[in-house]
Amino acid sequence: MKVKLMYYHESIDSKSKIFPVKIILHDKAANVPKHWHRSLEISYTYQGSIPDFTIAGKHYSTRPGTILVVNSNEIHSVFFPKKKRQDSLALSLIFPYPFLMKIVPNYRYRRYEIPDKELLTANNQQNLAELEGILKKFFQFASHQTNPLDEISKTSQILQILYLLTKNFSSIVTTPNDLATTDKPFERLDEIIMFIQEHAKEALTVTKIADHFNLSASYFSRNFKYHMGNSVIEYLNLVRLHEAYQLLTNTKKSILVISTQVGFPNEKAFTRTFKRIYKVTPTDYRKRLNGKK
To answer: I want to staple 62 with a disulfide (CB 3.0 to 4.6 A). Which of 50, 145, 175, 202 is the partner?
Structure first.
């Protein structure tokens, strides 16, 4: 039986004008569907817990002080069961792949991993405590920064976090960590995915994407589904749904405005697609989020 893959590639684009690292402070429980990106992601739980953080098929339950690392191209997701949907405070630092390739020696062949505490040596326990300490300090700092000069301090702290993580919790491996798209004849998959990410809000079609890469529509569709497990349109809609999910969770924009903003042709198409994937309409999801039946 063929398994339909329900995950998508996420393009990371930092909003910082000074430093190319995406910083996300999480102050509420929110599910994140399965996805992957070429960036390195660090997750730090400051308060509360994340009951199910899945990385490459392994499930983690976090508590205050837990640090998780998502390597390049590892499929990951976050799930809060309804009974455990308590608010938690957490931090995500997402380092873009091009930046890491420039600053981290041998990044393409480097794998990050923080072993279970009971498996750590005394020296590594001390290293982990140091990393936890600076992440905790950084969360508090990033939550309250007000001075424009704080951006300089923020950059310094982020570099220290990356340094400690790389020095103490990474190793060189034989298999490169970037996307395995070298198998002919579809070696441009990563470039194609980036294009879809960047233009998802537009009226994209299979033909329009194929034409952009000088491919026939049939060849493009067939190979895309073979490599991704989804058709081009299914994947495009997953990208749009992820953005819509965030807007539904974190803004008060209307369903109509959200559907238009993320690229669906109309509200009806958005609602139908959202319900098929999340098993609930956007309106009912927002009601549940606000504690209404």
So the answer is: 50
Residues 6 or more apart whose CB falls under 8 angstroms from that of 55 comprise 68, 70, 74, 75, 76
Give this prediction's pTM.
0.66
What are the angstrom distances between the C-alpha of 118 and each of 51, 58, 200? 20, 18, 45
Q: Work out the angle between the directed axes of helices 189-199 and 217-228 (0-180°, nearest 10).
A: 100
DSSP state at residue 239: H
Q: What is the pLDDT of residues 203-238, one digit of tens each?
A: 999 999 999 999 999 999 998 887 766 789 988 998
What is the C-alpha to C-alpha distance for residues 169 and 123, in angstroms, rounded to an integer? 12
Cα 55–chain centre separation: 11
pLDDT at 4: 37
**In this structure, how many other beta carbons lie within 10 angstroms of the beta carbon of residue 166?**
17
For residue 90, pLDDT over 80 is answered with: yes
Nearest Cα neighbor of 55 from 27, 76, 26, 24 is 76
- The dihedral sign for the CA sequence 152, 130, 104, 181: negative
Burial class (CB within 10 angstroms; exposed 0-12, middle 13-18, buried 19+) of 218: exposed
CB 134: neighbour CB atoms within 10 A? 17
Dihedral sign, Cα of residue 244, residue 247, residue 248, residue 252? negative
The answer, yes or no, to whether residue 67 has pLDDT greater than 90, is yes
